[in-house]
Amino acid sequence: MRIALLKPSPLPGFAPALGxxxxxxxxxxxxxxAALVWRASGLGLSGLLSxxxxxxxxAALKLSFGLSFLAAMLNVxxxxxxxxxxxxxxxxxxxxxxxxxxxxxxxxxAVAGVALTAVxxxxxxxxxxxxxxxxxxxxxxxxxxxxxxxxxxxFMVRSVEPVLxxxxxxxxxxxxxxxxxxxxxxxxVVLPPLAPAFLTGxxxxxxxxxxxxxxxxxxSGNIPFVSEIAPLLIVVRLEEFDEAGATAVATIxxxxxxxxxLIINLVQxxxxxxxxxx
Amino acid sequence: xxxxxxxxxxDRDALAEAxxxxxxxxxxxxxxxxxxxxxxxxxxFIEAFGKGAAGFxxxxxxxxxxxxxxxxxxxAAICVPIxxxxxxxxxxxxxxxxxxxxxxxxxxxxxxxxxxxxxxGLCCVLLFGARGLFGPQLASHGIEVIFAVPGIVLATxxxxxxxxxRELIPLMQQQGSDDEQAALTxxxxxxxxxxxVTLPNIKWGLLAGxxxxxxxxxxxxxxxxxxxxxxxxxxxxxxxxxxxxxNDYDMxxxxxxxxxxxxxALVTLVVKTILEWRFAGELALRRRT
Lengths: 278, 289
Known about the structure:
heterodimer, A: 278 residues, mainly alpha, 14 helices, B: 289 residues, 0% strand, globular
């Protein structure tokens, strides 16, 4: 039995290491998540669906998933260009910029939230000029979008960068030798093998954006039906001591995100098979 | 100037972007990062010093702010060592052994990253809240978890769980176990092998993981916001204190605390970047985040 489950190894410590990891994982992650599923099952599928179809809940879910999707889409472009510039070009300050890409990872979300709000508020450095043009960013859904692009950008850049760096220059030279223009080389030779990396970045940015709270609540304005994201609605329900409502929103959010990630993984498997890149 | 012969001159149009396009792309990337990353960061420090250095120092000597700094340090001091030790254990099991269910374990280790921090906090409430699974029993013994420090620690442990293991697993897989097997062959005990071979091999990756874990532990907002109860001077961590002061329209106060957290993020980034530049070979080449 043991032989079938564990490949023999001369190294010691497997049982205690795995045991400790599993115990901790169970206590810390699995039991809490099981508590959520248990509470949700108490509501039943019909209970969940009736809460999901409440107008305020539906509006929050639509806003969260819609904006997260759009932000991840924009990050495909922004992150793609940033990754391209950082891997392909040599220019002063390149390494500094490369390091700075991780800033949204490292910066506490509450700090990002108040900082983005200050920048994009009507009296802020960017919000001011935009406000003069009649475009309000902070305290509108557009502000949420800006925050979600902010936190998603590093996921895209860091997913694409290493794969882009590994593209063999020979393939580009071959393409050029065969008479392709630079643009055609980029779109038909360089970019296709990068599709899985872009999808990975997209999935990571999307998953993070859907659940994001700290960097959004300050800039969003938090108006029900307009700029109230799903995680905030969970907090609101908890503050009303409506644990069932909070549980329902959380369960629906998790189910939707996992379904989305599953779809992205399936698409990715297809893309990989087609392009032949692992 | 003489042009290079045609067969030597690289065909710029075919192999690289035109200089103008290249400059435009660089300019665009720089502008995106400047507007998106540097501007908000600069704002934090400018607002924090809006009333000069004295205002900044004043804001940080507020007793409630002091208490939030202390609480944040305590929470990090509890969570980081625990999750470091467990992260090393998980990485050892995953990177050094082949066993059934390994990929499932790796997926589960990453799970906290794909769960909203707010949901992590909610799970803690469902377990230990006044009407939670274990809440009433614990309350009858006088133990408070939710709206108290244990709940904050628990929520922080949840969200910081993956950092160390994630940093170590690819690194240790890349390094292989030859050094460790040699140590064992030469008669070292398991612990001796770990302390004299494994640990020195992974130390820089471990440091990077610990730094990221610490940055998240000190900066976590969503999960902690749900369980803390926002009692000023008692259960407000630094990020929660930022929110409280911000909602009071005490901008200098809020941004002074935010500046401390931003400084922590910058130090984390700088050290991590230096580690990546100097010890690229000893760290997994690029995190596959």
